[in-house]
Amino acid sequence: MTSKLGKVGVLYGGLSSERPVSLNSGKGVYEALLSKGVDAHLFDTGERSLAELAEQKFDRVFIALHGRFGEDGCMQGALELLGIPYTGSGVMASAIAMDKTMTKRILLDKGLPTPKYAVAHTEADLYEAEKKLGLPMIVKPPHEGSTLGLKKVKQVSDIPEAFALSQTYESELLAEQCIIGRELTVPILGKGDKAYALPIIEIIAPGGNYDFNNKYIANDTKYLCPAPLSAELTAQIQDYCVKAYLAVGCEGWSRVDVMLDEQNQPWILEINTSPGMTSHSLVPMAAKASGMEYADLCIFLLEQASTKVARK
Length: 312
What we know:
The chain is of the alpha+beta class.
């Protein structure tokens, strides 16, 4: 009975550089919820205020926001204050996962495999990072998604361009050992000991470049779901990803990005706590491979909506 879900707000748009993706995610979720008979309403947080959000008196909201001010704990904190149940992870997990550097520190503390890294504030720092990490090296802004601001440094002469590109997004950069191999992603659903991994997806992008264009615009990228891996390796990767999800404190859903090197060693790159829900998106793809249609996935996530801070 979808009527028990009450009046539902689909929060989309927002203020981040990923706004165009969020607009598409939100519309997809909104239409899916309507198809299931949910009293759903679109709410663009980039154009409307928190005061207006409070006036809507939503019984719960589906967060289809990506990036800053929507996926990083800011909106989650506002919803906690307003007492509106919301989908996905809480304030702390959202903030940690949005910070790729902090995520790596937690992964390393838990003994989970993640590429070596260095933090850079200046171009000189990147030259020092290259000595530590070797080439190729990835340079990216640690609080952006959708590969925005990311540059693969193949030779030392690429460093100035990588620095200039990433610096357009933020001043503190993440330099990371570049893992050569297969690109995988693992959606996770649920909470606590009920969290589980959906089928693994292998991403085969033109020229091995899974950038913004190949993610959301072009149709040349191939997706293999379930990924052609042995049962043993599949189980190992899924186990690592669920452990990473729980280590950060995620709940509801997330997507864990992984590189599998040429020795079949998996390396966790990052965790996305508000993954895309567009026609090109990966969580719906993995859900479908497990027998869950897009609209059913939306309902599943919405049913788990909650506030995470107990009120006395």
